[in-house]
Amino acid sequence: MYSINLWINEERYDKLNQVGLANVAKDVLAGMKVLKLQCTKEQKDRILQFYPMAKFDSATTRSIELLPAEAKDKMFNLVIKKGNLDIIEEFFESIS
Amino acid sequence: MRYGGHGGREIVDRVIASPSEAKDSIKGLKQIAITGRIARECINIAYGFFTPLEGFMGRADVEAVCKKMTLVNGILWPIPIVFDISKEEINEKGIKKGDTVLLVYQDKALATLEVEQIFSYDKTKIAQSVLGTTDAKHPGVRILHEMGDKFIGGKVTLVNTPRFNPPFDKFWYTPKEMRERFAERGWQRIVAHQTRNVPHSGHEWLMKGAWFSANGELPVEKLQTGILVSCIIGPKRVGDYIDEAIVLGHQVLHEARYFRDDIHMVSIALWDMRYAGPKEAIFHAILRENLGCTHHMFGRDHAGVGTYYDPYDAHRIFDQIPEASLNIKPIRILEWWYCPICGEVTYSGLCGHSQEKQAFSGTMIRSMIQDKVKPTKLIFRPEVFDNLMKCTNEYGFGSPFCTEEYLSKRQPIFELPIL
Q1: Are A32 and B379 in contact (CB < 8 Å)?
Q2: Is the pLDDT of residue B1 over 90?
Q3: What backbone torsions phi and psi does residue B179 show, to the nearest 5 degrees?
Q4: Which of B162, B239, B390 is closest to A66 using CA atoms?
Q5: DSSP string spanning B371-419?
Q6: By the CB < 8 Å criterion, does A32 face chain B?
Q7: Residue B188, class by beta-carbon neighbours within 10 Å (0-12 exposed, 13-18 middle, 19+ buried)?
Q8: Ramachandran angles phi, psi of B208, nearest 5°
Q9: What is the pLDDT of residue B364?
Q10: How many whole angstroms separate alpha carbon A80 and alpha carbon A2?
Q11: What is the ipTM of this complex?
């Protein structure tokens, strides 16, 4: 599996809390948390094709980096709307 | 006011301030177009940032720097400052010893160079002795490889005064002006913080810790110790923070009163980093000694790159030089980290929760900024973040980090008037 890291500050944490997902975010630095969205190889390749400026960091984090902030905002909003982390297909629908 | 600089020498001042006198001095001179690095170094030499250097080094000085880390006269100096040129240009323009040539930057006259010596020097030897490596991937080695195959040694005189564009104009001080500012503020001790970063809380605490060290036994009712933030302005690469955000980000720290206005000051210094690790640490100390600083903080991996140096090599090198060779004291600092047990940003030399620590990672913070997610207050001051976003729109063409667009379209840091 491959991941996309969504940064969670206090404001986003409150929203996650409201949909019962607060405990899924992992604390990494001084209250700043990260939410890891998982995707398959096929989904990863589609994302990289759609956002050519993004890169897959195969050496360290095995996550997709340098996605535009707007794309990540959209992903976060889908997580809140759906109430779970399985949102990659919905994300593709929203951008196609 | 006395302007004593490095090596016990008076601060070098080789600037012709009068435009008419400058115009007369350059009449009929052969011209050499120079790179940004050489232009920045001419400015540094002429205003005394590189005191006691009065010009670009000759062969004997380069040799002494490489072999003994001193100038020929025995004054501590770790990095050769050389004027490079191609053999072809020397021949084509008929440049010879005894000439004075006009150095032209972006089609404008900048300085004159008295040709005292034309020489060659093995650049691989410089790389090995100064950078400790000849690996072409090292950015300092790359700078050397990009240089022409000949060097000209000789005195430099600035004939045209650079005009700094906003927002940099508010932060540019020559060594003499800087000392006047320090005197106005009544600072007896000044601790320099060298930076190429938008400050996060780890940097802020680095400065605060260094201030405590520098202030030492001085009375505290009326503070006489200041922090000089010295932002390095030089060539940028895609992905670096934009210069405007760095300088203004530090300024915001005292505007938002995370530092008192009377103990914190932001400035810029022109320098093309060689990433020479320990030797560059010595160089930074000399640069700030010439600015009038009494202390210089050195954190983990100062001026390092990749894995070429141990993270604390830049601390240890100060044990290898005679104390009297520098008139500025190094303040050696370990890491500041966030401790979830202590619930605060704390110092690794004090906090025992090393297993639970959460280290400040520049990469992690950059990733948050890239996502435009405002980090928590403990990591990044909200005012600094807001300023970063403002700079993104105002100067960064929509990005807080350098992009190809920023690098090609940005307003230059300084410009030269037509003489």
Answers
A1: yes
A2: no
A3: -65, -35
A4: B239
A5: TTPPPPTTTS-HHHHHHHHHHHHHTSTT-SB--HHHHHHSPPSEE----
A6: yes
A7: middle
A8: -65, -45
A9: 85
A10: 21
A11: 0.85
Long-range contacts of A44-47 (CB under 8 A, 24+ apart): A44/A2, A46/A92, A47/A4
Residues in A closer than 8 angstroms to B367, CB to CB, are: 5, 7, 65
What tens digit of pLDDT does each residue of B67-119 get?
999 999 999 999 999 999 999 999 999 999 999 999 999 999 999 999 999 99
Instruction: Give the mutation candidate from A32, A53, A61, A67 for the B interface (greatest B CB count, under 10 A).
Output: A32
Walk me through the domains of chain B, giving residue ranges and CATH numbers: 6-161 (3.10.400.10), 164-415 (3.40.50.620)
Helix, strand, coil percentages (3-state) for chain B, rounded to 5, are 35, 20, 45
Which of B119, B116, B142, B115 has the alpha carbon at shortest distance from B131? B142
Output the six-digit token pair for B181. 């500012």
Check A9 against B361: CB less than 8 A apart. no
Cβ–Cβ of B371/A72 closer than 8 Å? yes
Which one of A5, A6, A31 has the shortest CB-CB distance to B376? A31
Which residues sit opposite B55 in a β-bridge? B155
Residues of B in contact with A5 (CB under 8 A): 367
- The tens digit of pLDDT for each residue in B7-53 reads 999 999 999 999 999 999 999 999 999 999 999 999 999 999 999 99
Band (pLDDT 50/70/90 cuts) for residue A53 is: confident
